[in-house]
Specification:
Largest sheet: 2 strands, antiparallel
Strand order of the largest sheet: 1-2
Distance between the termini: 104 Å
Number of strands: 2
Strand content: under 5%
Structural class: mainly alpha
Helix content: 55-70%
Number of helices: 13
C-alpha cells in the first residue's frame, strides 16, 4: 500500500528504490549510464567542459587541437534532460544486449560504433566546408549519445528478429518493446526533434551515422562465440530488408548491392559466408549467455530466432543443393586430374 501512493515515500525510501534498480543492472551499462549523466552535470556546472568534450571541428584541427573530441563527442550530452533520456535508453538496450553478448563484446560494440560514427560525422563536416567554402561548418557543435542509441536499436531488432519481446530491467517493472520498426521509428523521432522542433540539425548526421555503423558492425564484423564466422549473412538482416518496407526494397536493393560490391572491391568489407551455415534452429546468440528462465532475464522466452512456416523444408533443400554442388565440383576436379595424368603419360612415351 505504501508503494501505491497511500503513504508518501520518504527520501530514504526513494533512494533505496533507485539503488535496488541500479543494483540489478549489468556492470558496463550502469557504468556508462553514470558517466553520461555525470559528464552532463559537470558541463552544466563548468561550461569549459563543453569545449573540451564536445566535437567542434574548428577546435579539433586548428586552435587548441582537441583531437580527442572525435572520441568523446559521442559520450557527452550538453543537455541534462537529454543525458537522462540517453541513460534510460542505454539501460533498456544494455539490459538486453549486455546479458546476451557479455560485457566485453557490448563494450567493444559501444566504443567501435561511437568512434566510427563520430569520425564519419567529422569527415562529412569537413567535406561540407570544403565543397561550399563556408568556414561556418567548422564551428558546428556535434555532441550527444544519439548515434549509439541508434546503433542499440539496430542491435535489439537484430537480436529479437522482428518479434516483440517483454524487456525486464527490474523485477516489478516491465516494458513491452516492439522491435519491428524500432530503428526507423527512432530515426523519425530524432529528425522531428532536432530538425523540425529544435531547428538544430547539427546532431542529426551523428544519429544517421550511428544507425548505419551499428548495422555494418553487426552485419560484417561481430564474431560471437559459437557462430561459424563473423557477421550475420541472413537475408532478413540485409540492408534493404532490415530498414525499409517491402514496397521500397526493390528500389533500394540494387543500390545497396552496388555499394556493397564497391566496398568489397576496396576491402572495406569481406564477402559474407553462405546463409545456409546459419540454421533456423541455431540461435544468433548462444543460449548459455541468455538465462531466460531466471526472473532477472532480459528475454521473455527461450527462442532467439523466429520460426517461420516451411523454414525447415527450405533449409533441407538448401543443404541438399550445396551437397550436390560439392559433388559436382569434386567430379570436375577428378576429371581434371585424370586428364593431366594422361597428358603426363603421353609426354613420357614420346621421351
Amino acid at each position: 500500500a505504501e508503494y501505491m501512493g497511500v503513504v508518501p515515500l520518504s527520501a530514504t525510501s526513494r533512494a533505496f528504490m533507485w539503488l535496488s534498480l541500479v543494483k540489478g543492472l549489468p556492470f558496463v551499462t550502469a557504468l556508462l549510464s553514470l558517466a553520461i549523466v555525470t559528464l552532463s552535470i559537470m558541463g552544466y556546472i563548468f561550461p569549459k567542459v563543453y569545449e573540451v568534450f564536445a566535437m567542434i571541428p574548428d577546435r579539433t584541427i586548428t586552435g587548441p587541437m582537441y583531437i580527442w573530441n572525435i572520441a568523446t563527442g559521442g559520450y557527452y550530452e550538453p543537455n541534462i534532460v537529454g543525458a537522462a533520456l540517453s541513460a534510460l535508453g542505454l539501460i533498456i538496450g544494455g539490459q538486453v544486449l549486455e546479458r546476451a553478448w557479455g560485457p566485453r563484446e557490448f563494450l567493444r560494440f559501444i566504443v567501435s560504433v561511437n568512434l566510427a560514427a563520430c569520425t564519419m560525422t567529422f569527415v562529412l563536416v569537413i567535406l561540407c566546408s570544403l565543397i561550399t567554402r563556408e568556414r561556418s561548418f567548422l564551428s558546428t557543435h556535434v555532441a550527444g549519445f544519439k548515434g549509439i542509441i541508434g546503433a542499440l536499436t539496430v542491435a535489439v531488432k537484430q537480436l529479437y528478429l522482428d518479434k516483440p519481446r517483454r524487456v525486464h530491467f527490474h523485477p516489478k517493472i516491465t516494458f513491452h518493446l516492439s522491435t519491428q520498426h524500432l530503428p526507423m521509428a527512432y530515426l523519425f523521432i530524432s529528425f522531428v526533434e532536432e530538425v523540425i522542433v529544435e531547428r538544430d540539425p547539427e546532431e542529426f548526421p551523428l544519429t544517421v551515422c550511428g544507425l548505419w555503423i551499428g548495422w555494418c558492425y553487426l552485419r560484417f564484423y561481430q564474431h560471437l562465440p559459437g557462430m561459424p564466422s563473423p557477421g550475420d549473412p541472413r537475408e532478413e538482416f540485409a540492408f534493404a530488408h532490415f530498414f525499409f518496407p517491402s514496397w521500397l526494397r526493390p528500389l533500394v536493393r540494387p543500390l545497396s548491392w552496388m555499394c556493397f560490391t564497391a566496398a568489397v572491391s576496396i576491402r572495406c568489407f569481406g564477402s559474407l559466408p553462405s546463409a545456409a551455415k546459419y540454421s533456423r534452429k541455431q540461435p544468433l546468440v548462444p543460449l548459455s549467455l541468455v538465462t531466460a528462465s531466471t526472473p532477472s532475464a532480459a528475454l521473455d522466452g527461450s527462442a532467439m530466432t523466429a520460426k517461420r512456416p516451411g523454414s525447415e523444408l527450405a533449409q533441407k533443400r538448401r543443404e541438399r543443393g550445396f551437397q550436390l554442388l560439392e559433388l559436382r565440383l569434386a567430379s570436375l576436379n577428378n576429371q581434371e586430374e585424370s586428364i593431366s595424368l594422361n597428358a603426363d603419360d603421353d609426354s613420357t612415351k614420346h621421351v
